């Protein structure tokens, strides 16, 4: 089967490579077209524009940075809308808000196309290993047709009903994750300032009720001040912002998420946005430094 793939960032590249490895024909497009070359070496074809990819492929997946990128690729000149038509499916796996997803869904459906939102849990390594968790919502027929590809990309996929439910669930998950990362950062800072070993703190956490893969994976690198980007901090802050907006809409008070968002914003202002989201630890440390000055 030929699948289109729009967006070859950290996630998109790993996912497209996985599809190629499993025998899919993949036609790729990326805003910075030079990034397509690595995929071509692994057997992909290149579409010059999103419209060209849609024209060629029955199914096209997008994995783009944020709502503005997701909208631009669909609605701008040479975008998805120019070629989407009866019988074609568009699957947006980017993390966006429900409103963005609904706008895209309506426009595609109006042209006779099928739409599915399918954001994912899991980062660079799970994407490379086909171990993502896929949160799909929208056109059930398209979901059923995509299950074999989702089985390549992920270890589990959920169908959540109407468009928006996948986007919302993803934001709730990432809101919790961002708050946990801030709690870990404050804990590491507090341990250090209290004369305790940060590694011992990690060892103790890993043996108890709040052991989790994220602390285990990120903690040791954080102690070393190493933040190679798997999940860029700027995207985590975007997710906190969108989750807080969802909280506003539903009158849900979220003081912990709001404080965590401030820490991610602070980290961005320190120029850490392209590092891994665990680099929020640097912002937490710098706030504690100025508190004690
Ligand atoms: N990294 C992770 O661990 C995870 C990320 N996600 C989500 O997946 C999505 C992609 O993340 P990730 O791969 O890490 O992000 P990257 O920043 O690595 O890649 C972003 C992609 O979006 C493209 N892009 C950005 N702006 C535009 C635009 N205006 N028009 C067209 N293309 C654009 C970039 O193109 P270019 O190369 O030209 O800049 C690139 O292909 C995000 O929504 C993120 O929140 C979800 C789960 C995990
Ligand atoms: O959106 C990014 C999620 C990262 C993860 O689930 O590890």
UniProtKB/TrEMBL annotation:
Q: Enumerate the UniProt keywords alphabetically.
A: NAD, NADP, Oxidoreductase, Stress response
Catalyzed reactions: glycolate + NADP(+) = glyoxylate + NADPH + H(+); 4-hydroxybutanoate + NADP(+) = succinate semialdehyde + NADPH + H(+)
Please name the PROSITE patterns in this protein's record.
3_HYDROXYISOBUT_DH
State the InterPro entries in the record: 3-OH-isobutyrate_DH-rel_CS, 6-PGluconate_DH-like_C_sf, 6PGD_dom2, 6PGDH_NADP-bd, HIBADH-like_NADP-bd, HIBADH-related, HIBADH-related_NP60_sf, NAD(P)-bd_dom_sf
GO CC annotations, alphabetized: cytosol
Under Gene Ontology molecular function, one entry of this record is: NAD binding
* List of catalytic residues: 170
Residue ranges of domain 6-phosphogluconate dehydrogenase NADP-binding in the record? 2-161
Q: Where is the 3-hydroxyisobutyrate dehydrogenase-like NAD-binding domain?
A: 164-282
Q: Name one Pfam family in it.
A: NAD_binding_2
Q: Which family does it belong to?
A: Belongs to the HIBADH-related family. NP60 subfamily.
Q: What's the stated role of this polypeptide?
A: Catalyzes the NADPH-dependent reduction of glyoxylate to glycolate as well as succinic semialdehyde (SSA) to gamma-hydroxybutyrate in vitro. May function in redox homeostasis and play a role in oxidative stress tolerance by detoxifying glyoxylate and SSA generated in glycolate metabolism and GABA metabolism, respectively.
- PANTHER family on file: GLYOXYLATE_SUCCINIC SEMIALDEHYDE REDUCTASE 1, OXIDOREDUCTASE GLYR1-RELATED
In Swiss-Prot or TrEMBL terms, this protein is called 6-phosphogluconate dehydrogenase NADP-binding domain-containing protein
Q: Which organism is it from?
A: Ensete ventricosum
